């Protein structure tokens, strides 16, 4: 072996030893790192994603949470301002003067026909108010007593309109004279410009009151009289005026009490049946006339403060109810708005309790309504409840029992 080969072998041996030492050192360092670092999968943790930008709702919520005092003050200001605005608009609307149209010469132009119980407190107060507002009011009179009652009011533009509903041919002739009155020209005074009258509306005020009684105690004659006087007469008057209504695009208004019929209590079968028949009739009539551009409105009346009834009750010593009814002026303003507005509502709730009892009858189960009305009580308690309900109906202005006003002699 030569010296060069020995030197080469020595160098290779030294290199292998150095490599082994380096490998052992790195293995030792790696074992120490594995012992110090926690157990992981060996993968680097993912980089956190950037959160999406906050929405408008989140920004508002954060702002509200940071400014609670300012938010509370703003809400209080908005609530107070809204209530004040509503009160202002309501007061302004109630104080707004509602007057019918007049011609250039000052003559009245709009005609309103009121049909129903002539001496009814609601009807009489209504046609007197319409006459004061500037309408020419015709009240349908079926008897000479009704005609005399209307003339006793001593109003120039409050006139009776004779209609014989028993004889259709006579009624047609009487109505022909009324249509001729609308078609011809009128003069307020000599030299004034001619003007024509326009039928503004037909107001139906049937008397739906009935004496409380059980169904088994109501005779067929009573059923016939009630349906003829309250339902058939209303339908007959509507049919007679339909040609004039379509010609003048007049409004049709039906006024009925709704508190008692909505609850359908016992002992009021005639009243509930009458209300249901009239409601079905006005719904069908509204659907038919809507195609011809004629509006039909149903006024559902609640507790109203009728001055004539209140005076009579005080004179008779009847105790006054705890809750005072809605002033009668609200009904008069609503009727006027329904006659002159461009798009009147199909249903008007006027009077305390009208809207509430209407919702109760639609959404509450009949069993709960029956329990509220005293169903299932003992006979003695039921009789007492009936007597109290009858007294309450006669003493409450809003029950709209619509007693006849005694004519002053």
Could you give the order of strands across the largest sheet?
3-2-1-4-5-6-9
CATH topology of the domain at 110-395: Rossmann fold
Q: Proportion of β residues?
A: 5-15%
Total helices: the number is 14
Q: Summarize the biggest pleated sheet.
A: 7 strands, parallel
* Low-confidence runs: 378-409
CATH architecture classification name of the domain at 110-395: 3-Layer(aba) Sandwich
Overall geometry: elongated
Helix content: 40-55%
DSSP strand tally: 9
CA-based gyration radius: 42 Å
Query: What is the CATH C-level name of the domain at 110-395?
Result: Alpha Beta
Alpha carbon gap, first and last residue:
164 Å
Mean pLDDT: 81
Structural class: alpha/beta
Question: What is the string of SSEs from the N terminus onward?
Answer: HHHEHEHEHEHEHHEEHEHEHHH
Account of the protein in words:
The protein is of the alpha/beta class. It has a domain at 110-395: Rossmann fold (3-Layer(aba) Sandwich). Helices cover 54% and strands 11% of the residues. It has 14 helices and nine strands. The protein has helices at 3-36, 56-66, 68-95, 121-132, 144-151, 168-183, 220-248, 259-263, 269-290, 307-316, 328-340, 354-363, 366-372, 379-395, and strands at residues 110-116, 136-141, 158-162, 198-205, 251-257, 296-301, 304-305, 326-327, 347-350. It has a seven-stranded parallel beta sheet, with helices on both faces. The protein has a two-stranded parallel sheet with strand order 7-8. Strand 1, helix 4 and strand 2 (136-141) form a beta-alpha-beta unit. The radius of gyration is 42 Å and the shape is elongated. Residues 378-409 have low confidence and may be disordered. The chain crosses the membrane at residues 69-89, 109-128. It comes from Meristemomyces frigidus. Keywords: Membrane, Transmembrane, Transmembrane helix. This is DUF1776-domain-containing protein. InterPro entries: DUF1776_fun, NAD(P)-bd_dom_sf.
């Amino acid at each position: 072996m030569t010296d060069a080969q020995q030197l080469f072998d020595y160098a290779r041996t030294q290199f292998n030893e150095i490599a082994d030492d380096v490998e052992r050192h790195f293995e030792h360092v790696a074992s120490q790192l594995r012992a110090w670092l926690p157990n992981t999968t060996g993968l680097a943790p993912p980089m956190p994603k950037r959160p999406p930008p906050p929405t408008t709702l989140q920004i508002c919520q954060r702002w509200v949470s940071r400014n609670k005092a300012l938010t509370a003050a703003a809400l209080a200001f908005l609530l107070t301002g809204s209530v004040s605005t509503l009160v202002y608009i309501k007061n302004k609307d109630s104080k707004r003067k509602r007057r019918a149209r007049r011609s250039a010469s000052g003559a009245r132009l709009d005609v309103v026909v009121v049909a129903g119980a002539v001496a009814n407190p609601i009807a009489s107060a209504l046609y007197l108010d319409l006459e004061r507002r500037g309408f020419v009011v015709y009240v349908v009179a079926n008897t000479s007593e009704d005609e005399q009652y209307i003339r006793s009011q001593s109003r120039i533009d409050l006139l009776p309109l004779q209609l014989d509903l028993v004889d259709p041919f006579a009624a047609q002739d009487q109505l022909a004279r009324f249509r001729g009155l609308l078609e011809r020209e009128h003069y307020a005074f000599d030299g004034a410009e001619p003007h024509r009258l326009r039928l503004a509306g037909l107001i139906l005020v049937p008397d739906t009151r009935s004496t409380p009684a059980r169904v088994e105690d109501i005779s067929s004659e009573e059923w016939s009289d009630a349906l003829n006087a309250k339902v058939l007469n209303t339908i007959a008057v509507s049919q007679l005026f339909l040609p004039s209504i379509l010609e003048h695009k007049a409004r049709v208004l039906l006024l009925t009490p709704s508190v008692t019929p909505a609850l359908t209590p016992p002992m009021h079968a005639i009243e509930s049946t009458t209300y249901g028949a009239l409601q079905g009739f006005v719904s069908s009539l509204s659907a038919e006339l809507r195609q011809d551009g004629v509006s039909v409105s149903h006024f559902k009346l609640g507790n109203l403060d009728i001055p004539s009834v209140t005076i009579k009750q005080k004179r008779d010593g009847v105790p006054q109810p705890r809750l005072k009814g809605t002033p009668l002026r609200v009904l008069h303003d609503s009727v006027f708005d329904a006659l002159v507005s461009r798009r009147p509502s199909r249903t008007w709730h006027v009077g305390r309790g009208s809207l509430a009892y209407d919702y109760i009858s639609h959404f509450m189960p009949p069993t709960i309504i029956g329990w509220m009305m005293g169903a299932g009580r003992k006979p003695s308690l039921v009789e007492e409840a009936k007597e109290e309900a009858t007294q309450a109906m006669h003493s409450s202005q809003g029950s709209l029992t619509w007693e006849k006003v005694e004519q002053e002699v």
